[in-house]
Amino acid sequence: MINGGKPKGGQLSRRAAYLCQDYDFGLFLDQYQSRKQGVKIPYGTHNEQDRADAIRKACNISSRAELDHSYRAKVMFWRIEREFRKWQLQRASKNERTCH
Known about the structure:
The protein is mostly helical. Helices cover 67% and strands 0% of the residues. Helix 1 (11-21) packs across helix 3 and helix 2 (23-37) crosses helix 3 (48-59).
């Protein structure tokens, strides 16, 4: 903990910060939200702040630093990260097939 009783971020919160900076993660969220809401969300809609908000909302936390201190938040973040990596691989596979 740091001053004021706020949790100090560690490795997981840093991974979340890097993920939020990843433009592709925004595209992943655009596609996910399109499917979930049944409406077309234009690619590039989710900016870095939106990405961070999405992680905090999904993990039910107010700060990414809490990821290193809440088991439930960790599990949800790992799930998000795993689904994103799976999406990246599928996308890369599709791109590879269309390039040949």
